[in-house]
Amino acid sequence: MTWGIISTWQMSLSGVAKAAEQLDSGRPSGDAIQTAIEDVESNPAFKSVGYGGLPNAEGTVEMDAAFMNGDTLSIGAVAALHDFAHPIAIARNLSHEQLNNFLVGSGADDYAQRHGFTGKNMLTTDMQRYWGKQVRKNATRHDVLNTHDTVSAISLDYRGRLHTGTSTTGIFMKAKGRVGDAPLPGAGFYCDNQVAGVVTTGLGEDLMKGMLPIRINELIRNGATPQEACNQVVYPFVDALYQRSGHIGAVSVIALDKKGDWGVATNTAFTFVVATDQLAPTIFKAERGKNNTTVIDEKNV
């Protein structure tokens, strides 16, 4: 059995490298997911996840995260979480609970506090200044829609266990309590050891309309490769939504199946990171190609 991990955006390179070392040494894929995502959550240079993430309209950092175990199909998720260092760790802990697996707002905060998770003021001085500047200039729709990147990851270990994880602060200056696709099962992620893991990144309001992870998972179950499934689901959805509504935000999807094969589809310039037992952590870039295909190249850094 091979191992592998794939994660959205170039910002996940360092975390994927750490997770790859764990997978190579035989650690479980769930540990690798948490390691990869916590690395991004900890870095204030990445302004759409965790510490230093984007505030909402009231200047508060609200965080969403989810974790899914492809063996048991257990899910844990938090939304509108405040002032805890690692939302992904809290989501993972919730996946072990029999009930109350998805908590929001003060309920999520209370759970994290009761279970001893590390509290932290997630609003940095730099981001507070940036928020104030945008408020003073009356931030436009363009400013808001072009400042969101969820870190989402899928991991496969030597024992064939698949896990997925997501973490984000969502769109800049979102309404208090706004939740996107990232913590929503079937919309932002899905994972099944018998098939594949699939996760998304982009504009949650549009991604929620497509339920892309569960649809891609079913195509893989029925024999499609991850790349075929991503192409066949994402591009018709993107085109149909644009035709019906006249607009669509960024939509990117990655998939990793039980054999270690991966796929990606996107309607934007999208970077992602892959590591396997055959491939050192590598950044790729993807764009939509002709005839509902995806053009993928290794990114020079």
UniProtKB/TrEMBL annotation:
It holds the Pfam family Asparaginase_2. It comes from the Bacteria. One of its GO terms (cellular component) is cytoplasm. Transmembrane segments: none annotated. Substrate binds at R178, V179, G180, D181, T201, G202, L203, G204. GO terms for molecular function: hydrolase activity, acting on carbon-nitrogen (but not peptide) bonds, in linear amides. InterPro entries: Ntn_hydrolases_N, Peptidase_T2. The record marks D149, T150 as: Cleavage. The active site is at T150 (nucleophile). This is Asparaginase. It comes from Loigolactobacillus rennini DSM 20253.
